[in-house]
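Side project, low priority. Logging it here so it doesn't get lost.
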Amino acid sequence: MENKVTINIVDDIARIEINRPEALNALNRSIVDELDELFDQIKDNNDVRLLIIGGTKNFAAGADIKQMVDCTATEAGKFLFSGTFNKLESLEIPTIAVIDGYALGGGFELALACDLRLASIEAKIGFPETGIGIMPGAGGTVRLPKLIGEGKAKELIFLGTILTGEEAEKIGMVNKAVPAEELKEEAERWAAKLIKKAPCGLAAAKRMVADADKLDKKSAIELEAERWAALFNTDDQKEGMKAHLEKRKPVYLGR
């Protein structure tokens, strides 16, 4: 059977591609299970410093409705993708979703679990779930309001509005939208910049942004200060600052 998810690791960058074009890359149980295993592999691979997720022709046109239509509540609970998407969000390395074509429903929730989102200006992005009797169920109602604000998120989720990549960029749903023919090149430009940054600093910053949301402002600032100071015990900090002073490119080891 043809593999529907592929991974390629080159120069410390992992690239995952969903390849189910006959169904617009709709996410079924098999694909999500494959993604789950790959996220575990990436977590355990200290050589991987960046993850890029994309799809063939489309990012992912939601969950596969054919697999869900006759589910009971108990069966639907077993179909949920949220555990896998939480694994993606919790990876310590930066993650980029590269969105072309459709990123709807569960597909957009997969993109929301990434740190950064690049889209083609013609991409179709949103949550159509209320039009088929359900709601987003893999983090959409949690992550989108934090990204664009509660009011706008409610509007898009309730109405099931589908935005283009260009429209999504204007309200912060994606970081940047470019013409489709430039999308992969733009993703590689971002990757080239990120891979030059200190892994320890990136990981600490990512953890801090996530943890700050759970704390009051004073506690968050205090924790940030502690983690900032702790970075001075890393080789990355010593290498980064010395390289800056010596006017050379740093060589980071991620420790």
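Brief comment: Residues 199-245 form a domain with the Lyase 2-enoyl-coa Hydratase; Chain  A, domain 2 fold (CATH 1.10.12).
Revisit when time allows.
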